[in-house]
Amino acid sequence: MFPKALRAALYSLPLILAACGGGGASEGGAGDSGKSAEGAVKEFTNATDMILGAKEAPVTVIEYASVTCPHCAAFHETIYPEIKEKYVDTGKIKFVFREFPTPPQGLSYVGSVLARCAAEKGGSDAFFLVIGTLFKTQKTWIYGEDPKLELEKIATQAGMDNAAFDACMKRQDLVDLINKNVSDGSETYGINSTPTFIIEGEKVMGVRSTEDLEAKLDEAIAAKAEKKE
Question: Are 130 and 154 in contact (CB under 8 A)?
Fold first, then answer.
């Protein structure tokens, strides 16, 4: 179905897998979360992160998610658009997406690598465009008769021809990058299900509505404002 190089990478590497879903109340974070010497602007983020929003936004939200996770797709279809409009577009938060592949893990890695390839040409906007399309068409490209053809269509929307798509599927370095996100998420925050959110270092699970997430965001924004006073 896919070029042999990426298939070999997918099935020969010791992948750390997670179960999609999860629930329960929010949990505390795992202490220091990789703060940069440059200060709060870089707090909780790293050089390989895909970020939407102003870099000077006071609050950082990290989503650990999988493009094959139906709960993640539901979040991005029903909750994320309003959060983006109210908090990202207004400069209140910056939103980070970190890959945490879940079964079917092979396809999850393929979709994630595709989004990373798109980002190399079009930046974070292209990355989030591909991620959003993967969530919207999840059932088609995962369970359809020809997933490769469906993914090539998504690649075309991101400005990639079939040759570029095939070259993308050979990117061992991107598989390694995604594996690092998985291992770092597991070790730093105890991530074991998707979607899981990290808001200013605090692990938040069980987001079932816009109101659930807004309450946490408002709390974090207020706390950050109070520290500045």
Answer: yes
